[in-house]
Design goal:
mainly alpha
Length: 89
């Protein structure tokens, strides 16, 4: 399953970097981060408590919130989505 998830992260990350299908590519990234957060941080929460879990999940939270932002706002002005939309009009 690791190869499958890694492939999805690479493909969706490349799409986000290019700004191509940004909103669509952010959905699997959100799901991956939610699963990673619950599977890796639940043990820390049970053994060491809330604050240790939050400290250890800084990167997870930033990636999750960044993906949610991209889902809401899209790729932006310099994205391939914007360029393709402009050329299509």
């Amino acid at each position: 399953l690791g190869s499958f998830v890694g492939t999805f992260e690479i493909l969706c990350g490349a799409l986000v970097l290019l700004g191509l299908c940004t909103r669509l590519a952010s959905i699997p990234l959100i799901v991956i981060m939610l699963v990673a957060f619950t599977t890796t941080k639940s043990e820390i929460f049970l053994e060491k408590g809330f604050w240790e879990m939050m400290h250890g999940s800084r990167t997870d939270w930033s990636m999750l919130l960044g993906s949610i932002f991209l889902l809401i706002k899209g790729g932006g002005f310099w994205s391939a989505d914007k360029i393709l939309k402009k050329n299509g009009e």
